[in-house]
Structure formats: structure tokens, C-alpha cells
Specification:
204 residues, alpha+beta
Length: 204
């Protein structure tokens, strides 16, 4: 019996469309990430992974170590027209044996939240995961108190799988419960149609 797996091994790649460009994260993006995080002082949010300004280089270094270890692919999110760094996202918890990966560590400058940016990024990441890599499932996880993140994931069409209690440390030293979501390959065509509709419809 053959073991299920990706059609091709996940590797650093540039994804572009719908006004954004996702490029492999590198140390040269540190200044742009600091500026994006300063737009709203996002590091003050206890339920996110946004680094404090002085920790940005370490944040990037740790992401690249995850890439080198084979379980992460981090991206810088750029405005396609200007090249401005808007934030970051990544594939993580990559499990080739069962063609599984998760999307997370996602954050954007405050001025670009509640825009088309997140929908555009998720569409590009999901297209690559399912259509190119051949993922069997894509997952998400978020803090039980990060209600905005939960709503955003649910708007994508992902299913809530459950809650892992007392699961991970927050930056303030408290321990969070983690809410898990997933999207199966068979559910992807309908979700893709919905995301495309969201991007094409007029916005107020």
C-alpha cells in the first residue's frame, strides 16, 4: 500500500495575484515588518504572534530556522504595485507523509486589515497547497480569545474541528486553549468559488 503524500515537496516560492505578492521571507524584510507592526502597535495584542520592534530580526530568524528544518514556509506579504511590506504569513506544521499543512502566523498592518488582503492571500496559499502541492487537508489554529481570527477563518469556509485545551503559552505567560480548523481537498472547489466571489463583488 502506498503512503499518501504531496505531489511535490513544499519549497520556497513566490505567489502573486489579486493585488498582493507573497515572497519567501528573508532578513531584508525585517524593516518592512517593523513598519507594518507599528501600524496599530500590533505587538500589544496578547492573542497574536506579532513581534515587538526589537524582536523582529529574531522573529524572522526563527521562521527561517523552521524553513530549514522542513516544517515551515514563511512569506512576506507585499503590495503588488508598490512592493510595500503589508505583513506576513506562512505554511507551518508541514507533514509530508499525510499531505497536511497549516496556514498561520498571519498578521497585517492595521490599515490593511478588513480589506481584500487576507482573502487574496488565503486564495493564493490555498490554490498552491491544493492545486500544486496536492495537499489532502489544510489546517488553521488560533487562540480561543482571538475571536476576530476565528471569524476570519470561518469566513473562508474552514470547518471547526475542536479545541485543544491548555495547549500553548501566550506572550504574557498565560496558557491558551487552541481552536483548530481544517479544509479538506474535496471541499476546496466550493471554497475557491466563494473566495473568488468575495474578491469580485463590489465593496462599500
Amino acid at each position: 500500500m502506498s503512503t499518501p503524500g504531496f505531489k511535490q515537496a513544499p519549497h520556497p516560492v513566490t505567489l502573486e495575484g489579486h493585488g498582493v505578492r507573497l515572497v519567501p521571507l528573508s532578513p531584508e524584510h525585517s524593516a518592512g515588518l517593523r513598519a507594518a507592526a507599528a501600524d496599530g502597535e500590533l505587538w500589544n495584542l496578547r492573542v497574536t504572534s506579532v513581534p515587538e520592534p526589537e524582536q523582529t530580526e529574531t522573529y524572522v530568524t526563527q521562521a527561517l530556522q523552521g524553513r530549514d528544518d522542513g516544517h515551515m514556509l514563511p512569506f512576506a506579504v507585499l503590495d503588488a504595485a508598490s512592493g510595500t511590506v503589508l505583513g506576513t504569513t506562512r505554511y507551518h506544521d508541514i507533514v509530508p507523509a499525510v499531505a497536511r499543512l497549516e496556514i498561520g502566523y498571519t498578521w497585517y498592518a492595521r490599515s490593511h486589515q478588513r480589506t481584500r488582503i487576507n482573502t487574496s492571500c488565503k486564495l493564493l496559499l490555498l490554490e498552491h497547497a491544493f492545486d500544486v502541492l496536492g495537499a489532502g487537508v489544510v489546517g488553521w489554529r488560533t487562540d480561543n480569545y482571538n475571536h476576530a481570527s476565528q471569524r476570519a477563518i470561518e469566513r473562508l469556509g474552514a470547518r471547526r474541528d475542536g479545541v485543544i485545551r491548555h495547549h500553548a503559552l501566550r506572550r504574557d505567560g498565560t496558557v491558551r486553549d487552541t481552536v483548530m480548523y481544517s479544509l479538506l481537498a474535496g471541499e476546496w472547489p466550493e471554497v475557491r468559488a466563494h473566495l473568488l466571489y468575495q474578491l469580485q463583488r463590489p465593496r462599500a
